[in-house]
Amino acid sequence: MSAEIMVFQEIGPLVTSCIDGYHVCIFAYGQTGSGKTYTMEGSVENPGINQRALKHLFNEIEERKDMWSYTVNVSSVEIYNELLRDLLSKDGEKLDIKINPDGTGQLHVPGLRVTEVKGFQHIKKVLAKARRNRITFGTKMNQHSSRSHALLCITVHGTDLANGSKTTGKLNLVDLAGSERVWKSGAEGERLKEAQNINRSLLALGDVIQALRGNQTHIPFRNSRLTYLLQDSLGKGNKTAMVVQVSALETNVGETLCSLKFAQKVCRVELGPAARKIESGAAQCD
Ligand SMILES: Nc1ncnc2c1ncn2[C@@H]1O[C@H](COP(=O)(O)OP(=O)(O)OP(=O)(O)O)[C@@H](O)[C@H]1O
Fold it and tell me: Is the pLDDT score of 60 beyond 70?
């Protein structure tokens, strides 16, 4: 069995729970060049988590079609130098996060392109477009290094055909930019600025994890665009999984240890019982 299939066996139930009305975050984390983008996007012969998740999602929807009707909306953004770029717009339009004026207190990104996808073949085209628009540059550590965090955000609205109740699930698939030691990656000028922004936002993610783990009342979601954007899926009552990539090279042992320590911290976070999002606003616990 390939490693990708084994990883997906762990992830599959989380994808299913998004259809049931839960908010889910799946991250790829690790040093630059360790295989995060490969894990999320994969190759033509060996699709990654993004494609497998969406295939799984549409298969589930098909199986439930006599009992539930679903709509699936997809958007994709990258966070580059703390700026949001729409990966599904023609020219990677720059956007920002705002409080939704509808009074719900929810965050939204005005102008973000949201595409309703009807099936797996359609989503493949959407994923290809997002991939083409992503910013990559060559560094000493990776010839095609992603210099940004890429988020694929899938919202699933469900309607129970028997009683009309409605659910809203979210699945955030996140390919984080790689942490790097700038003296090793040879980053200077623009690459150095990117690396500093990447390391800063990964630190902010670490701070959020630390605060969640410590059950603190204030979780510093607002300290980076990444955590701010994921606020409604990353905190208590939601479901999160992190896939950590490490390098097999002895020269990277320092970075590998850092990644594993981060993974250990994440493992110890308890988000409590997950809450199902239903239209009435009430929450049902697992
Ligand atoms: N399991 C794998 N099988 C085959 N090739 C792989 C695998 N993992 C990674 N690679 C290859 O290694 C190279 C680096 O991988 P990738 O770009 O996914 O790293 P990354 O962690 O996303 O790096 P960065 O943070 O710099 O963007 C790529 O050429 C990728 O195709």
Answer: yes
